[in-house]
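__Protein archive entry__

___
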Amino acid sequence: QVQLEESGGGLVQAGGSLRLSCAASGFTFSSYAMSWYRQAPGKERELVAAITSAGDIATYADSVKGRFTISRDDAKNTVYLQMNSLKPEDTAVYYCNAQRVVGYWGQGTQVTVSS
């Protein structure tokens, strides 16, 4: 049974930091590219950051470059999103995605940044 479980969301003041985690099970984690998406109220889901299965290439949305860092630990079947210098516009539900031929999604974790 495939599971992606996000954690680490919460309420933080602008300028603060959060670290999101996504624990995976039920599939060969090391073979999958992993991504973080987010969806704010009334907006479409957008890609925030992605990392290759090898962990050698990471890409970011322009809006988070220099502030967010995606990483993975294949020994723990976990992908992380370190978020620094948070802004109110980063407020959204953050989702973990695993992608190969098929894709899997987590249930999401809420991040709220107050001004």
Summary: The chain has a mean pLDDT of 97. The CA atoms of residues 70 and 81 lie 5 Å apart.
